């Protein structure tokens, strides 16, 4: 036991969405042994999912700047099936040699610039092994339309802050997935106008 447990950065959204996301991932990643997460952020999802799902090995990753707190949270709160976080910028060469059954990422595509998203998808054939399941949580546009007025407003805020960011079009993301050998299998509508989009190896 540790005498002193630091107060970790906490995302309120993660606290709200972690159970609804887990409920969908139980179905999506059923039968998977190892999942890699991109942009684990505060680590709340990684800790929650691995505590609730001891049979699944969860590999968190993050950009270098976020790593100190993520490392600490995993150390203090994580069970054995939660691996030590790896430093990973999707545009870099630090991708692990290990292959995973699934890849999960939450709230990253509207933050990453499009070339970063292209770099992430280009790595999928290398990092995934059959059944090669990709699950992405976040807001999306479909047929060029926002799913809510609040998402349109959110997109305006994102693009005002960083013109390279913004809510992505499902069709453009699906094109990258198809080029990586994945076929679209499901769109799970989530609370607060979010979605979990799922692709699988063809
Ligand atoms: C809005 S946060 C989401 C964090 C967490 N997944 C969540 O749902 O709370 C976006 C994350 O994307 C990560 N990110 C941005 N660019 C990245 C890149 N090039 N490679 C890997 N991660 C990146 C950031 O470090 C950040 O943790």
Polypeptide structure, described:
There is one protein chain. With 202 residues, the protein is of the alpha/beta class. The protein has a single domain, classed as Rossmann fold. Helices cover 36% and strands 25% of the residues. The protein contains 7 helices and 10 strands. A 6-stranded mixed beta sheet has the order 2-1-5-6-10-9, sandwiched between helices. A two-stranded parallel ribbon has the order 3-4. A two-stranded parallel sheet has the order 7-8. Strand 9 (182-190) and strand 10 (194-201) form a beta hairpin. The radius of gyration is 16 Å and the shape is globular. It binds S-adenosylmethionine. S-adenosylmethionine is lined by residues 11, 14, 38-41, 62-63, 66, 88-91, 106-108, 111-112, 116.
Keywords:
single chain; 202 residues; alpha/beta; Rossmann fold; six-stranded mixed β-sheet; two-stranded parallel ribbon; 7 helices; 10 strands; globular; binds S-adenosylmethionine
What layout of secondary structure does this protein have?
Blueprint: H1 12-28, E1 34-38, H2 44-52, E2 57-59, E3 61-62, H3 67-77, E4 86-87, E5 100-106, H4 114-122, H5 124-127, E6 128-138, E7 140-141, H6 149-161, E8 168-169, H7 170-179, E9 182-190, E10 194-201
Parallel strand pairs: 1-2, 1-5, 3-4, 5-6, 7-8
Antiparallel strand pairs: 6-10, 9-10
Helix pairs in contact: 1-2, 4-7
The protein binds S-adenosylmethionine.
S-adenosylmethionine (SAM) binds at residues 11, 14, 38-41, 62-63, 66, 88-91, 106-108, 111-112, 116.
């Amino acid at each position: 036991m540790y005498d002193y447990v630091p107060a970790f950065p906490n995302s309120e959204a993660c606290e709200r969405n972690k159970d609804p996301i887990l409920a969908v991932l139980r179905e999506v990643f059923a039968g998977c042994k190892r999942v890699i997460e991109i942009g684990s952020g505060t680590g709340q999802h990684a800790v929650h999912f691995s505590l609730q799902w001891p049979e699944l090995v969860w590999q968190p990753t993050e950009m270098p700047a976020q790593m100190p707190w993520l490392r600490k949270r995993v150390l203090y709160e994580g069970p054995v099936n939660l691996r030590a976080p790896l430093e990973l910028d999707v545009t870099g060469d630090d991708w692990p040699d290990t292959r995973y059954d699934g890849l999960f990422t939450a709230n990253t595509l509207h933050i990453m610039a499009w070339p970063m998203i292209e770099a992430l998808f280009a790595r999928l054939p290398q990092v995934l092994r059959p059944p090669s399941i990709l699950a992405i949580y976040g807001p999306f546009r479909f047929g060029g339309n926002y799913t809510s007025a609040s998402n349109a407003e959110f997109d305006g805020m994102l693009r005002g802050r960083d013109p390279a960011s913004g809510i992505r079009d499902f069709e453009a993301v699906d094109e990258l997935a198809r080029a990586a050998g994945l076929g679209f299998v499901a769109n799970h509508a989530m609370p607060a106008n979010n979605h979990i989009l799922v692709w699988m190896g063809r």
